[in-house]
Amino acid sequence: MAIPIFRASVSSCRPFFDASQSQKISPFKRSRLLSCTSAELNPLQSRSELSICVGTHLIPHPNKVDRGGEDAFFVSGYHGGVIAVADGVSGWAEQNVDPSLFSRELMANTSYLVGDEEVNYDPQILIQKAHAATSSIGSATIIVALLERNGTLKTASVGDCGLRIIREGRIIYSSSPQEHYFDCPYQISSEVVTQTYLDADVSSVEMMEGDIIVMGTDGLFDNVFDHEIVSTTARFSGVADAAKALAKLAHDHSKDSSFDSPYSIEARDKGFDVPLWKKILGMKLTGGKLDDVTVIVGQVVSSPNITVL
Ligand SMILES: [Mn+2]
């Protein structure tokens, strides 16, 4: 088999499990924070601890709506909250492998292992163990973020899923996408020749109450600029509404051939462009990238002022 480094591009998304069943969607407000329904995420927290309220939204690639696409994600109330997304690499379809199988099983295993003793709140080790437990053929990009109750957000990412942290209207942290070359991200795989957890980009960020986390697959970040992420999250009073708006914006941009997207800008930077004669006429390569779009928006909140046994 050829080295299975494929583009993760065209994927659409269906959550590993339904968002409405897996998380507490609670409003976030910039001016007045809520002692939100994260109580249900973290019923054992005390007042001084932090957790995240989470909203999610998926929009599948237009050509993959019927199959649900190839992205997967999960949200867990473990500790201060765990969020993760994976993007199944679509090139496997050329070998008659359903690209969604690997990403979904990977997310299922990540969810299952999140409380594993050996993982010990380390998202990089969580990726290692989830990868090892995944038996499907395929590959995927993946990002995992785990909030400790003391406010430390630990992240690990292989490939070009992404994460932004917004504090008081400014992005204070961005994950770094990893790729072999344009449109070919790092990925973990059923094959032994690709990347592993050891290649992950890892970070640790001290979070504050009110901070907003935006996580997504490349379908978001290839089609939406950071300033749009900031302005969009500021416009909505709930994390679910913000996630939906960001996903819709990404989807709309992905279908707009005249939009000068982050994807088209990077393409031109890497030497891809319209033919010379079109350049002479002042034309350039533009457009978004059709893809599955997965968006998770979380806001850091104080735990509720109740403690449930
Ligand atoms: Mn994608």
Automatic annotation (TrEMBL):
Sorted UniProt keywords: Hydrolase, Magnesium, Manganese, Metal-binding, Protein phosphatase
UniProt xrefs under PROSITE patterns: PPM_2
Enzyme Commission number: 3.1.3.16
Position of the signal peptide: none
Catalytic activity: O-phospho-L-threonyl-[protein] + H2O = L-threonyl-[protein] + phosphate; O-phospho-L-seryl-[protein] + H2O = L-seryl-[protein] + phosphate
The protein's required cofactors: Mn(2+); Mg(2+)
Family: Belongs to the PP2C family.
SUPFAM superfamilies reported for this sequence: PP2C-like
Enzyme class of the recorded protein, top EC level: hydrolase
GO CC annotations, alphabetized: chloroplast
Single GO term (MF): protein serine/threonine phosphatase activity
Lineage per the UniProt record: Eukaryota, Viridiplantae, Streptophyta, Embryophyta, Tracheophyta
Domain PPM-type phosphatase residues, every copy: 56-300
Protein name: Protein phosphatase
